[in-house]
Write a structure and sequence with these properties.
The complex is a heterotrimer of chains A (about 375), B (about 325) and C (about 280).
Chain A: E1 4-12, E2 17-26, E3 31-35, H1 42-50, E4 57-62, E5 65-66, E6 77-80, H2 92-102, H3 107-121, H4 136-148, E7 154-158, H5 166-183, E8 186-191, H6 194-200, E9 203-208, E10 211-216, H7 218-223, H8 228-233, E11 240-249, E12 252-256, E13 261-262, H9 266-272, E14 279-284, E15 289-291, E16 301-311, E17 316-322, E18 325-331, E19 342-347, E20 353-356
Parallel strand pairs in A: 3-8, 3-9, 6-7, 7-8
Antiparallel strand pairs in A: 1-2, 1-4, 4-5, 9-10, 11-12, 11-14, 12-13, 14-20, 15-19, 16-17, 16-19, 17-18
Helix pairs in contact in A: 2-3, 2-4, 3-4
Chain B: H1 2-16, H2 28-58, H3 74-80, H4 83-114, H5 121-128, H6 130-133, H7 136-146, H8 153-161, H9 174-202, H10 206-214, H11 219-247, H12 251-256, H13 268-278, H14 282-290, H15 292-312
Chain C: H1 6-35, H2 39-42, H3 62-70, H4 73-104, H5 110-121, H6 125-138, H7 145-151, H8 153-169, H9 173-181, H10 186-197, H11 199-215, H12 218-223, H13 232-239, E1 241-242, E2 245-246, H14 248-268, H15 270-280
Antiparallel strand pairs in C: 1-2
Classes of the chains: A alpha+beta (about 375), B mainly alpha (about 325), C mainly alpha (about 280).
The structure holds adenosine-5'-triphosphate (ATP) and magnesium ion (MG).
Magnesium ion (MG) binds near residues 42 and 43 of chain A.
């Protein structure tokens, strides 16, 4: 049982207000991911949970106990750092055993636990080596091993995969997921990579400028982003935003762009009514666009000019302009389009997003 | 299997946890205070206190074994009118300035020579540091022996080459004595300059040199426009250390000439020693060595400001 | 880069380098040769036809024997070794702790304390030796090795602290943070993680401090008076010269033998010494 609760948490460095009024509850066994652009306060929040950074105001609770004043050694947590922070003068075995020695476990139990962790992570043969004799991926495993031998209440990860090359990163991501399924320890994971966030997290916290933007399961963030920032941050390639005006023509609602107009689905119309006559942002994901086959209703199609084509093999990314607005569409690899072609695109009306252009909140 | 045991062990672990500890040292401020304590005590006792005591001494009329009275600035007035003291002041400045120029010139030259790849570089580098490692007093005796008026190997060499026909009394003539002292000081410090500047040179990427060469810069231009400006911060610090050490030098002059001939080669420190310890006029000696302080302070302040300017450029 | 003609290499590289090496090392050769030269050869005027500067035909150990039999040289060696070792140990202890505090911990006035250390680093011994002599007398430490063991740290600690600050800053902060999360207190993290990782830095500081204390002269000259308490540099200066008469043979033998311990320590740890030297002037 380990639950972490963060209440009205604030952190100010002299000038910088790095973390602003964060409220979160991380449930037992949950894998919670903090994601956001560089400098948004993810690391600072994590370090406050770890006890490495003093708390300006607010509270951190682990298992219903306020731990604000508890030094890190007494919080029963484990942390994996971006640069691994393996103790360079100790062998892999001693690295993993250090936390247990500090807690005065007896030798036999230390050996048993290190062996267990080494088996789980497949690093048995490396136990006698020094960290500098290991590859990046192996160091990563040792750092993980050092965290799991302790059987802590909470795992903290600060961008643990970002020093690995792309391929290894994907592989370790899968392993981390497996490991979590197996151990079931509550985990907080910081990353700026939204793919990692989506694939690893039971829930994801999106942060920006020290503020929490949205908390939710990965698909929830993808399908129902709370605001323009989250919509743009989650998903790759990023969502297209088209400035349009909502206009009431012939009793039905239209989103009118500079050189096109489309009809939002009836399901949305109710919510959009209140914004009639106002400028809003239309959000369409690249994967929700396709080249029309002629069967689509004209209300859900518009014309665009191809600027650049990017062949990815499994799909083609088309960089287009619809009037002055640039956009990206991800289309079937069978589409043949050349630069300069004018294409008629159709969008999936059920997956349209609309944002207030002032507050940027989802409508 | 593993999961089950881990789960069980995890529960045991919980109970082992909170143990009493010394919380005070978990507070950064208390820990810092504790860690700095030994240093503060030693430096306070043997630097701050002597400094204070030195000021008091210099304002009194103490001699060895006699607690003196407060006499104000009388000691300073007295040394101000002392012609030997004035010579010592002049000597100190002259000695510091001349040696610094030569040390820097030769040191830089040697550093540039060592900044190449050649066989046996590690050994050469290790060997040339010897003058700096070996206790100054001991190596200075070797020099004094080499400068000996009757048995001088330097005289012998100059004579063989045909540069001189009669002996030179190196340490017997005031100007030659000063020159000899300068030679030894430069000899001792060149390795220090060379190795420090070499370390500075090695932080300069060779690509910069190559880029400048491709841009058409001649070797001395490459040095002047690329290497030298980048080396300047290190150079300034090395010069700062050297200037202070030289300004306050004692052992070299003490061994070579003892301040002679006829008190012509005294520096602040040797004269302070002669008056304060030799003749036992404690307060006057303290005044002489304290007279160094404003100059040292000035040197440090000027150089630190300059270093800061160079570094933030 | 391409160097150009061979003669350029000679003129601009080999010849100057050889001259430097020759001039820098010649005095040591001179020490060596004088040590083993019999008096009869030694005291030949420079213009005598029998002056034979660079070699000796009858090497002798007389000067060395004289040194050990007739003077307290072995006591001086022992004193110097003892004082240098203990004062280095004290300075390392203080310097490592202070360097850690100043480079790693946040506390009020950390910055000004760091500057203070740097300033004391620049205080030369000759500024304070007269009042310090008075203090040593008052503490009843005069003419004991403790007078030096306690005062040498005043110039060694600032140096060690400075060097260790630089070194600690190069050790990633995450190492000790990780240790603290692993269950170590701040003190344990320092003892078990940071200090072991900083061993090369500590070694550098130690070697450098050792050579500095072996070299120290004025405090030893002023604080010690009885011949059997002296250090090598002071003993050589005061006991091997009678008035105006210099015993050059024993003097050079003493200079040679007195240099050997430092030279040996140095030769084992050249790289550490150089690291210490260059670290000491890093701003
Ligand atoms: N010790 C510090 N002193 C002053 N400002 C700090 C300190 N640590 C972080 N900051 C500031 O706090 C803000 C948040 O930093 P933080 O490290 O939490 O960002 P992050 O989300 O982890 O970014 P990244 O993805 O780059 O790691 C930044 O503006 C940063 O400059
Ligand atoms: Mg971060």
């Amino acid at each position: 049982m380990a639950q972490v609760v963060i209440r009205n948490l604030n952190k100010k460095f002299d000038e910088v207000h790095a973390v602003k009024d964060v409220n979160l509850q991380i449930n037992d066994k949950e894998f919670m991911v903090f994601v956001g652009p560089s400098g948004c306060g993810k690391t600072t929040t994590l370090r406050m949970v770890a006890g490495l950074e003093s708390i300006t105001s607010g509270e951190v609770l682990i298992n219903d106990t306020v731990v604000n004043e508890l030094p890190p050694m007494d919080r029963d947590i484990a942390m994996v750092f971006q640069n691994y922070a393996l103790y360079p003068h100790m062998s892999v075995y001693d690295n993993m055993a250090f936390g247990l020695k500090m807690r005065k476990f007896d030798k036999a139990e230390i050996a048993q636990r290190v062996q267990e962790a080494a088996d789980i992570l497949d690093i048995g043969p490396l136990l006698k080596r020094k960290p500098r004799q290991l590859s990046g991926g192996q160091r990563q495993r040792v750092a993980l091993g050092r965290a799991i031998v302790r059987h802590p209440q909470v795992f903290l990860f600060d961008e643990p995969l970002s020093n690995l090359d792309a391929k290894l990163r994907v592989q370790m991501r899968v392993e981390l997921k497996k490991l979590h399924n197996r151990l079931g320890t509550t985990a907080i994971y910081v990353t700026h990579d939204q793919v990692e966030a989506m694939t690893l997290g039971d829930r994801v916290v999106v942060m920006k400028d020290g503020l929490v933007q949205q908390v939710g399961a990965p698909l929830e963030l993808y399908n129902r982003p709370a605001n323009r920032f989250v919509a743009g941050f989650i998903g790759s390639p990023a969502m297209n935003f088209l400035p349009v005006t909502l206009a009431d023509t012939d009793g039905s609602l239209w989103a009118v762009g500079p050189e096109f107009r489309v009809k939002p689905p009836a399901a949305m119309a109710g919510r959009l009514r209140g914004h009639t006559g106002k400028a809003v942002l239309l959000g369409i994901r690249p994967e929700d666009l396709r080249v029309t086959n002629g069967a689509d209703p004209a209300d859900h199609t518009f014309e665009a000019t191809v600027e650049v084509t990017e062949q990815l093999g499994s799909e083609i990314l088309l960089d287009l302009t619809a009037g002055p607005a640039p956009m990206v569409a991800s289309v079937e690899p069978t589409v043949t389009a050349k630069v300069g072609d004018r294409l008629r695109l159709a969008f999936n009306p059920d997956r349209l997003h609309v944002f207030d252009s002032q507050t940027e909140a989802s409508i | 299997m593993a999961i089950a045991t881990i789960g069980a062990a995890a529960r045991q672990n919980r109970q082992r946890n909170p143990r009493p500890r010394n919380r005070l040292l978990e507070d950064e401020r208390w820990l810092a205070f504790t860690l700095l304590m030994p240093t503060a005590i030693l430096l306070g006792l043997f630097i701050a206190y002597p400094f204070f005591k030195g000021v008091m001494l210099s304002l009194s009329s103490s001699r060895v074994g006699i607690e003196g009275d407060f006499v104000g600035l009388a000691n300073f007035a007295k040394i101000w009118n002392d012609s030997i003291f004035r010579t010592a002041v002049w000597n100190t400045f002259w000695y510091t300035a001349v040696t610094t120029v030569f040390k820097l010139g030769f040191g830089l030259w040697l550093a540039l020579l060592l900044n190449r790849h050649f066989k046996g570089k590690a050994y050469i580098r290790a060997a040339i540091l010897l003058p700096f490692i070996i206790p100054t007093v001991l190596s200075t005796f070797a020099w004094k022996w080499m400068f000996d008026p009757t048995f001088s190997v330097i005289n012998w060499a100059l004579f063989k080459v045909g540069l001189i026909s009669a002996r030179i009394n190196w340490l017997g003539d005031p100007d030659l004595a000063m020159a000899s002292i300068i030679v030894v000081n430069v000899w001792r410090a060149v390795p220090f300059f060379a190795i420090s500047l070499l370390a500075g040179l090695q932080t300069i990427s060779p690509e910069l040199q190559e880029a400048a060469a491709i841009d058409g810069a001649r070797p001395w231009q490459r040095f002047w426009y690329v290497t030298w400006p980048l080396l300047l911060p290190v150079t300034m610090v090395v010069v700062l250390f050297s200037v202070i050490q030289t300004f306050a030098d004692f052992q070299l002059v003490y061994v070579m000439t003892g301040g002679g001939p006829a008190n012509a080669t005294h520096l602040f420190a040797t004269y302070a020693y002669q008056i304060g310890i030799g003749t036992g006029l404690l307060s006057e000696g303290a005044a002489i060595s304290l007279a160094m302080f404003p100059f040292l302070l000035l040197i440090v302040v000027v150089q630190l400001l300059y270093i800061r300017r160079v570094e933030t450029r | 880069m391409i160097e150009g003609a061979a003669w350029r290499r000679w003129v601009f590289f080999y010849i100057p380098l050889t001259l430097f090496v020759f001039v820098l090392l010649f005095p040591f050769y001179w020490m060596l040769i004088t040590t083993f030269r019999p008096d009869g050869e030694l005291y030949q005027p420079w213009n005598s036809p029998r002056y034979q500067p660079f070699w000796t035909s009858n090497p002798t150990l007389d000067h060395i024997k004289y040194l050990f039999a007739e003077t307290l040289f072995s006591a001086w060696l022992w004193n110097t070794m003892f004082i240098a070792t203990i004062s280095t140990a004290i300075s390392l202890f203080c310097g490592v702790l202070a360097g850690y505090a100043l480079s790693r911990l946040n506390f009020p006035f950390a910055g000004s304390l760091g500057t203070g250390i740097f300033v004391t680093y620049l205080v030369p011994q000759t500024l304070l030796f007269i009042p310090l002599a008075d203090i040593i007398r008052n503490f009843k430490l005069g003419d004991t090795p403790w007078s030096l063991v306690l005062t040498y740290p005043t110039f060694l600690i600032p140096f060690c602290t400075w060097l260790m600050m630089g070194y600690f800053k190069s050790v990633p902060k995450e190492l000790e943070e990780c240790a603290r999360i692993d269950g170590a207190s701040r003190l344990q993290a320092m003892l078990y993680i940071i200090i072991p990782v900083a061993v090369p830095g500590i070694l550098s500081a130690g070697i450098f401090a050792f050579t500095l204390s072996w070299n120290e002269f004025i405090y030893a000259l002023v604080f010690l008076s009885s011949p059997e308490q002296k250090t090598v540099p002071v003993g050589v200066t005061s006991e091997l010269i009678r008035g105006d008469v210099f015993f050059w043979g024993p003097l050079m033998a003493a200079a040679l033998l007195g240099s050997i311990p430092v030279a040996m320590v140095y030769s084992f740890f050249v790289e550490h010494y150089v690291a210490g030297l260059t670290g000491s002037v890093k701003g």
